[in-house]
Amino acid sequence: MTTTYDPADRQYLDDGDLRHELERVFDLCHGCRLCFNLCPSFPTLFDFVDRHDGDASALTVAEQDQVVDECYQCKLCYVKCPYVPPHEWALDFPRLMMRAHAVRHAKGQGLKARLTDQFLGRTDLLGTVSTAMAPLVNAVTGTPGSLPRRLMEKTVGLAAERLLPPYARQRFTTWFARRAKPAGAPAQPEVSVFPTCFVEYMEPEIGKDIVRVFEHNGVGCAVPEGTRCCGAPWLHAGDVNAFTRAAERNVAALAGEVRAGRDVVVAQPTCAYVVRQDYPRVLAHSPLAEDAALVAAHTSDPAEYLMARHRDGTHPLVTEFPGRERGDVPDQVTYHVACHLQAQQVGLKSRDLLKVAGVKATLVQRCSGIDGTWGYRAEHYELARTVAKPLARDIESAGNELVCGDCHLANGAIEQETGRRPLHPMQVLARAYGLDEEGRS
Questions:
Q1: Residues of the domain holding 353
Q2: Is residue 120 included in any domain, yes or no?
Q3: Which 8-state DSSP code applies to residue 316?
Q4: Fewer Cβ atoms within 10 A, N terminus or C terminus of the chain?
């Protein structure tokens, strides 16, 4: 039995070895049960082991696979589990689940599963085509349960009832290249805004407000050339080779930005986690290992970056907020704490940033049940909605008019469950500064 989460290890894709490691980890988890309320995997696991009189080695392959399937990679195990490496037990549940998906992918899957993986993984191809035909694509796919959506569920496995984010007519990088810099904007960029597929194709307004807020606070912005989707859909589907190619491409581009003196800012927590944690691991044995570590060390969430400058006293934030004075932003908002932001363990920097603007944040720390592409898949849709119910309940209980959250994926689930469209915290800050209507296009 090999305790390995390194794709380069020769035992990584050995199914028999994986099964023994699942037994070991499942036995440890069953004995602890600290993660009983994190995701569906754990209650299912504990129930199966209890049915076998506490013997984790008695679980069938089908039972093991169900536990794997119900893990949606929220990464909160890293926050709660006391046995993660470097503990001697080396219990890394999320990466064990990734290994299980990699073994399954290597063994070969059915046509439907392969089509779903390809559809959800090729975000740049889909985004390029969809933004070029945004009005048509949004009209065809924007209504949950419609005939086109039911056909998509049958063919590519995308849940027919899942609310999909609309595509933008103009990509973020197109806007950035064409925009006229405001008077007084810094001449030299200090950060490179890595938009990822979410901001690039679906929510360019988030990227625009990041640039506006940063420049308003004296931070010049650039956009890296040559980056694409972070590759998380490939990683979560077990396609290690496709994910490695995405990591190599993005690390090569982002390392050039860092060596030019720019830090990397990533708007989407899942993508930031991938850049910081997964790229160095998957490229650990490649010629890009040093570049991956360099990029990870210089990558930040937008609020994390601004608060670090503000708190060291060398670059305090602008503290005049005309939008707040006009009442464009309420005194109190509900702030959803994204799982992948918690897993990065950088603190609640968006909450702190809102506080600077005089906005009190009511925290909601519940998972949305989306996490990468898991909640978009038809086979997980109903379970994902069940996971999201406590999130919706807590948002409604908070009673605030405005909801905000850093995760575009979670915000989509919040909109589906509550009918309220959340803003990114940087959008709230842009409104507080009175920047939200400047240069809209």
A1: 318-433
A2: no
A3: P
A4: C
Indicate the pTM of the whole model: 0.94
Q: CATH code at 338?
A: 3.40.50
Q: Mean pLDDT over residues 202-213, rounded? A: 97
Residues 6+ apart with CB under 8 A from 317: 217, 306, 309, 310, 353, 356
Query: What are the φ/ψ torsions at residue 317 (nearest 5 degrees)?
Result: -70, 150
Q: Is residue 117 part of a domain?
A: no
- Long-range Cβ pairs for the range 26-30 (8 Å, 24+): 26/56, 26/59, 26/64, 26/67, 27/56, 27/57, 28/83, 28/89, 28/91, 29/91, 29/93, 30/54, 30/56
Q: What is the pLDDT of residues 55-108, one digit of tens each?
A: 999 999 999 999 999 999 999 999 999 999 889 999 999 999 999 999 999 999
> Which pLDDT score, from 0 to 100, does residue 1 have?
52
Alpha helices in 8-164 (DSSP H): 15-32, 41-51, 61-69, 77-80, 93-107, 111-121, 123-132, 134-141, 147-156
In sequence order, the 6+-apart residues with CB closer than 8 A to the CB of 265 are 191, 192, 193, 194, 210, 214, 299, 300, 301, 302, 305
Please indicate, yes or no, if residue 102 is contained in any of the structural domains.
yes
Query: Sign (positive/negative) of CA torsion 426, 431, 435, 438?
Result: positive
Q: How big is the CA angle at 379 (ends 378 and 380), to the nearest 5 degrees? A: 90
pLDDT at 440: 40
Task: Supply the pLDDT for residue 439.
Answer: 42
- The bridge status of strand 299-300 relative to strand 332-336 is unpaired
Question: DSSP secondary-structure letter at 52?
Answer: T
Q: Tokens in use for 169?
A: 């007519």
User: Quick check: 441 pLDDT over 60?
Assistant: no
Domain's final residue, options 65, 92, 107:
107
Which of residues 58, 76, 107 is at a domain's end?
A: 107
* Any domain includes 375: yes
**Considering its fold, how many domains does the chain have in total?**
2
How many of the other CB atoms lie within 10 Å of CB of 364?
Answer: 21
Distance CA 440, CA 438 (A): 6
Give me the percent of the chain exceeding a pLDDT of 90: 90
Query: Contact at 8 Å (CB) between 103 and 18?
Result: yes
Q: Which two tokens stand for residue 426?
A: 């940087």
Confidence band of 4 (pLDDT split at 50, 70, 90)? confident
Give per-residue pLDDT as tens, 32-47: 999 888 889 999 999 9
Contact 73, 374 (CB under 8 A): yes
Q: What distances in angstroms separate CA 321 from CA 186, 219, 325, one per listed residue?
A: 20, 18, 7
By the 8 A CB rule, do 282 and 247 touch? yes
